[in-house]
Amino acid sequence: MTSNAIEARGLTIRRGRTTVIDSLDLTLPRGAIVGLLGPSGSGKTTLMRAIVGVQVVKSGTVSVMGQPAGAASLRHRVGYMTQLASIYEDLSVRQNLRYFARIQGAPKSDVDRVIDRTDLGGQADQLARTLSGGQANRVSLAAAMLGSPDVLVLDEPTVGLDPVLRSDLWNIFRRLADEGSTLLVSSHVMDEATLCDRLLLMREGAVIADTTPSELLETTGAATAEDAFLRIITYDSAAARRILTSTSKAAPGKGRTRGAQ
Predict the structure, then answer these.
(1) Where does the ABC transporter domain lie (predicted)?
(2) pLDDT of residue 191
(3) Are the C-beta atoms of residues 166 and 138 closer than 8 Å to each other?
(4) Is the Cβ–Cβ distance between 174 and 145 less than 8 Å?
């Protein structure tokens, strides 16, 4: 059994004549929160769609838990939360989750479990259209959690939420990771970087840094993750390679970093 949750080798994705991701190599371990950070249009969603197996790939491979991304055997092992809440507004929270549980083949008892885990007990019988943005996001997360997947791919789950609601969701993410799940969480909110175990920073379809929160700050000498990211993206390619590879040489075995591709 592979020790990695996600692996990509030579991943290339094109949209028309534009190369969105070019020959990307990536390895993500099990049981961690991995933050996928970068500005809008950097390729985060495209990469996540490839990992889930719903993105057309030009060349290269993506595997999840040792299986090709999108394989039928992964249907119950990978949960996916899209940017927009994927729920039916004319159904209650519980009805939504019962419907998704039937589709996924999850046991009926799982509905109550995910309602409890996402703190939706007070809204369980409330129509989805009456929910706040944060509550709707939690319903989408609960749906992704049905069946206790090994990997959760969450595309900007905290976008548009206030700090309190964002904190609530990140507490849920941490509990899931502590129980052994692997979470890939995309965001353009840089202060969320410090809540991750590992960070992937993307720009223009390339991973320009693969590191940990502490290494990111130490390597760049920045006080905040946002400042560190801004410093990285302003380096020219040669300087980025020298600076970003210094951490992996000094501290082997930790998150590695690499320059812009």
Answers:
(1) 6-229
(2) 82
(3) no
(4) no
Q: Is the pLDDT of residue 250 over 60?
A: no
Closest of 2, 5, 11 to residue 183, by C-alpha? 5
User: Mean pLDDT, to the nearest integer, of 125-139?
Assistant: 91
Higher pLDDT, 13 or 253: 13
Instruction: Give me the mean pLDDT over the 29-33 stretch.
Output: 91
Decide if 143 contacts 38 (C-beta within 8 A). Answer: no
Residue by residue, DSSP assigns 98-110 as HHHHHHHT--THH
Q: How far apart are CA 170 and CA 33, in angstroms?
A: 10
Strands 4-15, 18-29: pairing kind? antiparallel
Q: CA separation (Å) from 77 to 115, 149, 195? A: 19, 4, 24
Residue 4, beta-bridge partner list? 29
Strand spans (E) along the chain: 4-15, 18-29, 33-37, 59-64, 67-68, 78-81, 151-155, 182-187, 198-203, 206-211
Query: In this prediction, what percent of the chain has a pLDDT beyond 70?
Result: 89
- 219: which strand partners? none
DSSP-derived 3-state class of residue 13: strand
- Quote the tokens at residue 173: 């993410």
- Structure token pair of residue 253: 């075995």
Domains of the chain and CATH, by start: 1-77+151-212 (3.40.50.300), 86-148 (no CATH)
